[in-house]
Amino acid sequence: MSRKQQLLKRHRRNKRLGLLAALVALLLLGVFSWWWLPLLLLPLLWAGHEAWFADHLFYAPGEDYAYDFGEHAVETTVSLRGGMLVTDVALAGDETLVLALRVKSTWLGRFLDPRIELMAGAQSDRQTFERGVDGLRYLNLTGLAAPLQAGGLRLRGRHCRLQGEPRLWVTPSVELRRRRVMVIAPHADDAELAAYGLYSQAEETWVVTLTAGEIEAEHYQQMGMGQADAARLKGRLRAWDSIAVPRWAGVPESQCIQLGYFCLQLPAMQADPDVPMASREAELDDIRTFRQFNPLQLPGDVDGAPTWRNLLADLRALLELAKPQVLVMPHPQLDPHPDHICAQAAVLEALEGLAWQPQTLLCYANHLHDNDRWPMGESGDGVALPPQLEAGQPWAPCSLVLDLAIQRDKAMALGMMHDLQPPAPFKRRLRRLLQRWLAGRRPSPYGENEFFRKAVRRHELFWRRELNNDL
């Protein structure tokens, strides 16, 4: 069981115990007081819970975030005077800028999402934090270098206060758009969620999707299909998405590859590299089923066996063919999804001994251990750094700014993904309605799925490491 699954299990257990205790208290109140009072309070308590306490937050909002940005990020002097951020450091304008400061929620910020507004004339941004926040947080100021250097960047807390002396880290930019970029996507839509803005602007892009993402096909079972048939249909659709959707961004079909391995089987494949791992739900043990749209032959096409050995051979063939200068893949510590962890491990293992080596590694997090709402806030807002409570390996932040036109194109790309199209369950839709009425949360204008809110943002955030041909 992964750490996130353990945290979720503990969260649900504690919530059930809390609800049971509240129910017993209400029943006792009804017995010894007014019998009708529990009937009135129960729906009100449930609505309050859904509006204010239903977030999956597996840490205390009063804990500090902790980061080690490594040698590429330089800490510079900065001060906050009357709400204006002031620095005398010379900036080129395209750096990644991260501001650390303490944020303390007001009492209202326990019920409405606390956020910091960044204002600089016609430019503005908002970055949102946990309700009840009281600790060190990291703002993303990328794209605001000009007003910052001119002394025209104002910070204002909404439902929170800014405290202490801020600290600014500057990471010099690295050329990405004029280099060959390969995006590794464990599932169809991971490349678009994390890196559509990057890969749509790169001079040359390859998008390599590792799995068909065929499981959890209940939406298709509602059409009258059995589990296996529904899983096969879902896998075929997502395989098509992984090939077709990058074309929206101008990526040639010849550079969109679907490897067709089975969802949530990569950890088992890694544990027994020579043993085929069949699909959990589709009753398939041949990866070629989901490779029918590929424009080229790969080593795994010989026998179609879903093994770690075949996955490594496929990746080596693609790396030698594409010769990417920039590799984009999931972050090994921040992103807890088992397939995402194995995807990064597979690529690094495949690179061992290859004559061609990339120069830059960019990592992304489409999922988090501790906070299912990150990035918090609304579509179009900036992306503050995610919660991390212990500084692990040093990684330099690398953030791109997406203009409104690219954000809209990214939203349309996500809208083409079949896995983001089914309607949300009734309970989730009701919860969002209550949160909109009681907590002031607005839905994304681009779509109902939560990823439209989380991914269509002013920033795309990566973690950068220069490899220097030494893995």
From TrEMBL:
InterPro entries reported in the protein's UniProt record: GlcNAc_PI_deacetylase-related, LmbE-like_dom_sf
Protein name: PIG-L family deacetylase
Pfam family of the protein (one): PIG-L
Gene Ontology cellular-component annotations: membrane
GO biological process: GPI anchor biosynthetic process
SUPFAM superfamilies per record: LmbE-like
Top-rank taxon, per record: Bacteria
